[in-house]
Amino acid sequence: MTARPCPGDLLVIDSRVSVQFAGDRALTFRVVSVCEQPTYEGWVWLTGYVLNPPR
């Protein structure tokens, strides 16, 4: 089982999540909240924002 994200966590969203985030489409996401609403087994609803890539 994977750890549940918490507010303040930084998540790297890349090709390990989905092919649509491969290469330069990868992003870093800061979690603001985790919804308790039920969804698919092993999934969670996240609210947050994308951090700017380094320049």
Structure description:
- By secondary structure, this protein is mainly β.
- It has one domain (10-51).
- Helices cover 0% and strands 33% of the residues.
- The protein contains no helices and 3 strands.
- It has strands spanning 10-13, 27-34, 46-51.
- It has a 3-stranded antiparallel beta sheet with strand order 1-2-3, with no helix packed on it.
- The protein is globular, with a radius of gyration of 12 Å.
Fold topology:
Layout: E1 10-13, E2 27-34, E3 46-51
Antiparallel strand pairs: 1-2, 2-3
Question: How far apart, in Å, are the first and last alpha carbons?
Answer: 35 Å
- Based on Cα principal axes, name the global outline: globular
Q: Which structural class do the helices and strands define?
A: mainly beta
Radius of gyration of CA atoms, rounded to a whole number = 12 Å
Main β-sheet, spatial strand arrangement: 1-2-3
Order of helices and strands: EEE
Total number of domains: 1
Strand content: 25-35%
Query: Into which percent range does the helicity of residues fall?
Result: under 10%
Largest sheet, described in full?
A: 3 strands, antiparallel
- Ranges with pLDDT <50 over ≥5 residues? none
Report the total helices.
0
How many runs of DSSP E, i.e. beta strands? 3
Mean pLDDT: 90
